[in-house]
Amino acid sequence: MLPVDRELPVAVFDSGVGGLTVLHECLVSLPHEDFTYFGDTARFPYGERSPGELLGFAREIAEILLEEGAKLIVVACNSATAAALPALREELTGRVPVIGVVAPESRLAAAATRNGEVGLIATPATVASGAYERALAEASHGKARLHAVASADLAPLIQVGGEVDRRTVECVERACAPLRGAGVDTVILGCTHYPLVRPLLRRTMGREVEIISSGEAIAAEVERELEAGGVAAPGARRGAYRFLASGDPEAFRRLGTRFLQLPIARVRQVPVGSPGTGPAEPAGAAA
Ligand code: DGL
Fold first, then answer.
1. Residue 223 covered by a domain
2. Of 213, 229, 250, the domain-final residue
3. CATH number for the domain that contains residue 87
4. Does residue 191 lie within any of the structural domains?
5. 163 and 196 in one domain?
6. Tens place of pLDDT for every residue, the chain, 287 residues?
């Protein structure tokens, strides 16, 4: 059992830069907390990997983060949350609380929908897990219906970090078309990368459709959990942030600085074990 120190950082991880959308909301709500962010960029993307592989990665990263010092872990990746959250929570009971991204979004979507037709855009791994069907059914007491669209390409297109081009626009249009056809009035962004192209998604779905992402709800959950555990940092201080990546640290530094709009001075490379059997890192997508 690790000593729980109020001044230990909150740890946040994702396969790449997507979790920065969650970190951002945490920085807005909890500027006095320290944060450690880990991007598993050497094994990006997670979106087509198997549940067993994602659970293995999540366990390994959780141990790295605990070794670095963490009082709470946020799994800021829907694919990893869908595959690993219940097991990880159970395994780390008594050591550190673990917060994931699927349930808060489902609760927001259940509260937002008026016609009960809720869309989801997520990675193939997240859609295949059925985690959103279960979470939405629970949050809406079985009243809302989920229309899920899997996109293998959108997160990698965002992760490359280039200008939004024709391919990204077409990818978003392809994902949104069946949701428009189904008449959804609410769409869950079921991948933490997607808020980085929110304007494009919003234009494609139109003003009447509510777009749900989980950053703010996660930040509120982190705050509640820290308060409940008596480990919130003292309010009158300014937090410090550290960034770790398993892949190219300079590529992560550049991309992270742009997406977070926060000058990141340094990214430390932390090696991870098995590259797994999933798709290899696409060219140019090192961060
Ligand atoms: N940001 C991740 C998610 O929320 C994953 C994208 C990926 O690695 O494929 O699912």
1. yes
2. 213
3. 3.40.50.1860
4. yes
5. yes
6. 444 688 899 999 999 999 999 999 999 999 999 999 999 999 999 999 999 999 999 999 999 999 999 999 999 999 999 999 999 999 999 999 999 999 999 999 999 999 999 999 999 999 999 999 999 999 999 999 999 999 999 999 999 987 889 999 999 999 999 999 999 999 999 999 999 999 999 999 999 999 999 899 999 999 999 999 999 999 889 999 999 999 999 999 999 999 999 999 999 999 998 777 655 443 333 22
Say yes or no: 123 and 258 in one domain.
no
Q: Which atom of ligand 1 is nearest to the CA of 125?
A: 10
CA of 235 relative to ligand 1 center, distance in Å? 32
Closest atom of ligand 1 to CA, residue 193 = 1
pTM of the model: 0.93
> Catalytic site residue 26?
no
Same structural domain, 95 and 110: no
Pocket of ligand 1 (CB under 6 A): 14-16, 18, 44-47, 77-79, 123, 126, 155, 191-193
Whether 77 is catalytic = yes
d(CA 164, CA 146): 28
